[in-house]
Amino acid sequence: MQPEPEDYRKIRVAIAHIPGDLSNDAVGTHVAELDDIYAPEAHAAALAPNTPIVLGPRGSGKSFWASVLGRDKTRAAAASAYPRLALDKVVAQFGYTGIGGPDGISAEQIDAAVPQDAGIEDAKAFWWASVLNAAARATGETTTKPNDFLEQARDWQQRETLLNAHEQRLRGENSVLLVIYDALDTVARTWPRRRLLTEALLEVIWALRAYRAVRPKLFIRPDQLDDDALRFVELPKLRTGAVRLTWSATDLYGLFLARIALAPDLDASSAFERAVGSLGLRSADRHEILTRRWSLAMDPGDQQRVMALLAGSYMGKGNYGYKKGNTYRWPIAHLADAYQEVTPRSFLGMMTAAASYGAPPEDRVITAEGIRHGLRAASKTRVDQLHQEFPWIKGVLAPLSGLLLPQPEQEVHRVWEQTGTVEALKADAQRSGYLPPFPNVEAASAAGLFTALELIGVMFRRKDDRLDMPDLFRVAARLLKKGGVAPL
User: Fold this and answer.
1) Per residue in 362-373, pLDDT tens?
2) SS (H, E, C) 150-211
3) What is the DSSP string of 273-313?
């Protein structure tokens, strides 16, 4: 039996009210809460205490998981979700968070400890001090900061004496201290200083493999770790052991449907229960969702049936509507970046925008046109968010507005050269104090702009060598594509 129109309306309202600000910090006001936790099986390897480096682009969940692991109550929930990881034996402290406050470690603390003309040893001393500080705070010294331990950090004998004592204590308690580093893209505003601090941190992380009960965990952007100018000799081994936070289509739909099932509005969650019940499926409570005992979190076939109920089966109407795409697969295909990755922030942003678009239909929750509108909204949000990390991004994309993709490489370069984009970005980066898109400013070029966009998944090269851009960025950047969703 089909759901009543009122059930569709209530579910639509619940989707529209999924929180739009999905960003998290490791500490402070915007930390992850218990009701926010959704635990894909694929993320188990990333959360394992013995995994030192976790990679992910903006919106993939790096700060979310950093905040989950950093607090007792949320870490306990993660322990239930991933019982094999023994997270119940973990105590956690932060080594760096990008923001200050009583529990945070900010770039200002680095600047106070590591002079602008400092060398690698000064930088390593700060990161060793961050480990000593975390170990001290784990014993109850809650007012300390890394700079309180710089003297001991610089003296390898004092440092090892302190760390060995903490190691023995932790082993005696049968526990592991996890030292968490997040927001590492904020450590510096120039390429040489960022490289210095990143390389120093990686050396410390490598050295910590000597300790069994003191384990580091870095949440870091792929482009920062893949910087070819990093010279640490063991870097290839660290890169090989890194785990990337990825979200499959099944994970994304599981997250989306879980948000509806656990909607704060009980009328909406009851309406969803009746709707999926009409398909012979059932809803679930938070524990079942957390421990992945719900078919709608695990079974793509069941997810596709629910999506057909909520949005119809196809993105077009009539007998040939299937040619426009399937409503289950279409969002994933159009939200992917150049690495074929979709972040939960973009996916949920599309769905909330779709549920707010147009008049509510009587026979479904969202429409195909609403989903297309959701892509436009998600694209704008994604570019705006990228601009926070890469302040040069809009200056690179704006000159390309109106260009029909894909295009030969020289045509894209010609646009940037005719508009003076490279020189304008160099001047703006120097004036505003942010990292420009090209590490070597003296060798800056239009080709370098494409390389920078390619590295962060905003553009890619097709097999025929033409340059192209995923819809996730193309729509907001106002580039054209034959048969594609029209720009904003």
Assistant:
1) 999 999 999 999
2) HHHHHCHHHHHHHHHHHHHHHHHCCCEEEEEECCHHHCCCCHHHHHHHHHHHHHHHHHHHHC
3) HHHHHTTT-----HHHHHTT--HHHH-HHHHHHHHHHHH-S
φ, ψ dihedrals at 374, nearest 5°: -60, -35
In the block, residue with structure tokens 């421990």: 291
Residue 481 gets which letter from DSSP? Answer: E
Q: Which residue has the higher pLDDT, 279 or 482?
A: 279
CA angle 277, 282, 284 (to 5 degrees): 140
Helical (H) or strand (E) element with 461: strand 460-461
Q: Is 264 exposed, middle or buried (0-12, 13-18, 19+ CB in 10 A)?
A: exposed
Q: Which DSSP category does 362 fall into?
A: S
Question: For 81-114, what is each residue's pLDDT tens digit?
Answer: 999 999 999 999 999 999 988 888 999 999 999 9
Domain range summary for the chain, segments of one domain joined by +: 5-12+248-377, 41-244, 390-481
Q: May I ask the CATH class of domain 41-244?
A: alpha beta
| Other beta carbons within 10 Å of 180 | 24
At residue 412, what is the residue type? Answer: V
* Predicted local confidence at residue 55, as pLDDT: 96
CA pair distance 355, 373, nearest whole angstrom: 10
Interior/surface letters 432-449, b for 16+ CB within 10 angstroms, e for the rest? eebbbbbbeeeebebbbb
Phi and psi at residue 285, to the nearest 5°: -95, 180
226: which residues sit within 8 A by CB, 6+ positions away?
Answer: 239, 455
> Distance between CA 220 and CA 124 in Å, rounded?
18
Cα dihedral 50, 53, 57, 58, rounded to 10, equals 80
Q: How far apart are CA 274 and CA 280, in angstroms?
A: 10
Residue 95 CB: number of other CB atoms within 10 A? Answer: 25
Q: How far is CA 279 from CA 30, 48, 283, in A?
A: 37, 37, 11
Q: Per residue in 166-219, pLDDT tens?
A: 999 999 999 999 999 999 999 998 899 999 999 999 999 999 999 999 999 999
Within 10 angstroms of residue 6's Cβ, the number of other Cβ atoms is 11
What span, in angstroms and rounded, lies between the C-alpha atoms of 260 and 253? Answer: 11
The yes-or-no verdict on residue 332 having pLDDT over 60 is yes
Do the beta carbons of residue 316 and residue 330 sit within 8 Å? no
User: What is the chain's percent helix, strand, coil content, to nearest 5?
Assistant: 55, 5, 35
Q: Which amino acid is at 212?
A: R
For residues 385 and 21, the answer to whether their CB atoms sit within 8 Å is no
CA 83, chain centre distance (Å)? 24
Instruction: Please give the average per-residue pLDDT across 22-41, as a whole number.
Output: 84
Q: Is 301 exposed, middle or buried (0-12, 13-18, 19+ CB in 10 A)?
A: exposed
